[in-house]
Amino acid sequence: MGLRHDEIWRDTDGRPIQAHGGGLLYHDGVYYWYGENKDAENRPADTVGHRVDVIGVSCYSSTDLLTWTNRGVVLPASDNPDHDMHPSKVAERPKVVYCNTTQRFVMWLHIDKQDYRQAATGVAVADEPAGPFRYLQTIRPAGLDSRDQTVFVDNDGSAWHFASSDWNATTLVSRLSDDYQSFAGEFHRVFVDRKMEAHAVIEHDGRYWFLASGCTGWDPNPARSAVADSIIGPWTELGNPCTGPESEITFHCQSTFLFRTPDGRVIAMFDRWVKEELRSSRYVWLPVEFADGGMVIEWRDSWEG
Ligand code: GAL
Fold first, then answer.
1. Per-residue model confidence (pLDDT) at position 18
2. Which residues are CB-neighbours of 246 under 8 A, at least 6 positions away?
């Protein structure tokens, strides 16, 4: 039985899943879903836009991509007002990768202040996939602003951070250090002046595939896609890969992650934001098809695993 896109997705305790702006990791036969826990009342939107206080990063685990067990808040907010994970801050779009060399799980997330002018990225590590994660540092790639972000590990073990930079105008692709815990010093500007957010990257059939949104805050816009022979480009844009009802606004969604299952299928994960009540934001997961040199994401009413 699948998870319907018009219904609230619940964990094995029957509680709504809180894993927004998230991503998946497959490790030792188990899928881990990490995302923002937004299970709080929205703050009044008149001052800083629609937001909830930071609670932390949730983790859920599954063996079938349908039945999710809550593993708790694996990187919780800090009660220290000076800490970048204080509830008054912004901690978004967490992604976790596994480093074979150190055998550690490394989380990268967008760290910001309420006005989104800090524009940095946070790094946390854990010895086990379900944490606990220890916050290591807040950094900026090449000292530049970094907002929406994702991390991708290539087949050769190199890891890459994709982030909105130059006030979201450009995507900055930064190589991570061998332990995945900082930047290696190699930075590339791609999609210059294309104004993208919500990046997701996957390798499929020897090429790199990219999914993103435009920049309209919590409101949906047409998705973007692109393909490249090298992770640092040149990237060729392919347009909106979505087809079906409301595909012109990405089915009322914004991308968050591309995941390749162990048997080679590619899943596109989206958030369907409810900005007036962010804790009620929904999830939409759809299979990605690769046809005629392009990428196609067709609407389906449910995620079937
Ligand atoms: C979106 C972004 C979200 C969040 C939101 C705040 O564009 O993708 O992660 O930052 O803006 O308005």
1. 98
2. 252, 299
